[in-house]
Amino acid sequence: MKLLLPPLLLVPATLAATAGSFENVGDTLVSAMMMFLGSNDKVVYILDKAEGNAAQVNGHPAWGSVWDIATQETTVMDILTNTFCASGLHLPNGSFVTFGGNGGAGPGGSEGSVLCGASASWDVTYQDFDGAKSIRLLNPCDSSQDFSSPECQWFDNPAVLSMQAKRWYSTAEALANGTIAIIGGFINGGYILRNVPNNNPHDGAELTYEFYPSNGQPPQGLDFLVQTSGLNAYPLSFLLSSGQMFLQANVSTAIWNYNANTLTPLPDMPHSVVRVYPASGASAMLPMTPANNYTQTVLFCGGSDMPDEAWGNFSYPYIDTWDYPASKDCQRITPEPADGSAPQYVQDDDLLEGRSMGQFIILPDGKLLVVNGALNGTAGFGARNLLTEPDQMPFGESFASGPVGTPAIYDPEAPAGSRWSNAGLATSPLARLYHSSALLLPDASVLVAGSNPNLDVNISSNVPYPTQYTAEKFYPPYFSASTRPAPSGMPSKLTYGGSSFDITVPASSYSGSGNDAAANTAITVIRGGWTTHGMNMGQRYMQLKNTYTVNSDGSIILHVGQMQPNPNLFQPGPAMLFVVVNGIPSNGTHVIIGSGAIEEQSTAAEATLPDNVLSSASGSAPSSTTDTGTGTGTGGSSGHSSASTSHVALTAVITGAVGVALLALGVGF
């Protein structure tokens, strides 16, 4: 039985913000190194590393918080282990999980007070435990619930639930059944994953992968991580339609069959531009649409082309990185061309300026926003480098300089040479450098937060780039319209193929010809992902197929197909659904894609959609309020789910011995 949400108010929704502007939206209490949207789309969860934030929780500095989208108020959350440079992702039921981090840390970024080998198991001041093997689970709650209750808190207990290997700067990528592949990471170290000379790539590095939930096997070696030794922290990964995985690190590229653990080499990154941390270029899979036959193309922009020796070693870079310009270069690649041709990188339009630590946010209109970053240098921080002594560091502990405060927008459908623009976009006065983050919100604005290129919290006016707690919203150009679509009839779940559904867009949602509005409407599904270090792990965009009926009263009925019947294209779990009319998005609302469990997802044939029906009717919204002049696609919808599930439901997606062990131990799920 198809679940339908109550109709939204059939009155024009308004866009009250100034297009292209930034707005301060509160204090995050902890510096936003990592963020993700709660499963009810009402709150954003924030993670920092264990450090000396003034905000306290249970007698120690907080390094977790939750920000309420409506009230802009923030509440601290307790986390036991150090989440410094962890990875994370969604689960199929809308819960979230984070992996790894660093050993216990104390003031000034020092090792914790209780040493254990090359790391620390705990620190008496910050009271953080070693997080290098941690698996932390969260079932998101909203402001109507008690955040202090156990079911709304992080579960963080490595004695009960942990990875098999220590992983710092690992990557998480979901598979088609909702299982998560956890790839690579540091064991210990600092700037990059190598000694010089690099006689043993395994020194300090975890060049393996494992799965969550575990498949019962020990971590397996991944040759791609050996081949890319040195520059493979936070390796870039994208699940492909074939079920294999696209990997990029250092200057190498490959397709990985994770079932057989075999690699198919692809061409190297042109011009030897490094995109992974600490070069930290922006990367994203471009929108998958009916027009491009759901082709998967990955875009890379920015980063650094520093020569190999300049990257130095585990400790520090071997040049003054803050003087080295970041790359402008952009490249596209389609890893699995439909015509069977060999994959090749294709030169794309350069960025408007060089940018390291930039981050792509896919917008509901199918364009990509890039925010944050620096004109010069790389991610990372230190008291010195291999050339410059501590008292000579010109930008404090930052390895970058020249914050890029002006965002830019990339249009993948524009002709080559005209894809980038920052016209009409404001410049933020806040430096967003190392440990900054960004995330698409349900109102189609973008939350921008974080930045702390310092070993510990430093809010002194004497440092050029202090720890940043102020959150901002950026309002893309479509906020120039004062009326936005207000659709009704949205499902709370989407399936892989199967029966179509109808969405109604009232005449009050648009102006001008109903036929034109219907033809310029798109239904888009966006997963904003789990954001850190210029990455949005799990970020994807799919436009659903649709036809339409324009009624005599000007209302438009959209006949909408389900997700493509291939979970490899868009893995199961939470997402937002938007209706975009003449380039203006509705409010996005929450849907669950697939069964909600870690299991093989059911698929069905695509439904046959009815033919379009036209009418001479028009919309009733004022003509100047509903059109940005940039029509998009051919469909539209949006949806909202019920309140989040309990921690009991969370264990339903954790199969096998792990879930049994948690229940047996009485863990509050």
UniProtKB/TrEMBL annotation:
Query: Glyoxal oxidase N-terminal domain: which residues?
Result: 128-478
Region (Disordered) location:
613-642
What's a Pfam family in this record? Glyoxal_oxid_N
Cross-referenced Gene3D superfamilies: Galactose oxidase/kelch, beta-propeller, Immunoglobulins
Q: Does the keyword Transmembrane helix apply?
A: yes
Q: Which UniProt keywords apply?
A: Membrane, Signal, Transmembrane, Transmembrane helix
Spans traversing the lipid bilayer:
648-667
Q: Is the Transport keyword given for this protein? A: no
Positions with biased composition (Low complexity): 615-629
Query: Where does the record place the Galactose oxidase-like Early set domain?
Result: 484-592
Signal peptide segment: 1-16
Q: Which PANTHER family match?
A: LOW QUALITY PROTEIN: ALDEHYDE OXIDASE GLOX-LIKE, SECRETED PROTEIN-RELATED
Under what name is this protein listed?
Answer: Glyoxal oxidase
Native source organism of the sequence: Mycena metata
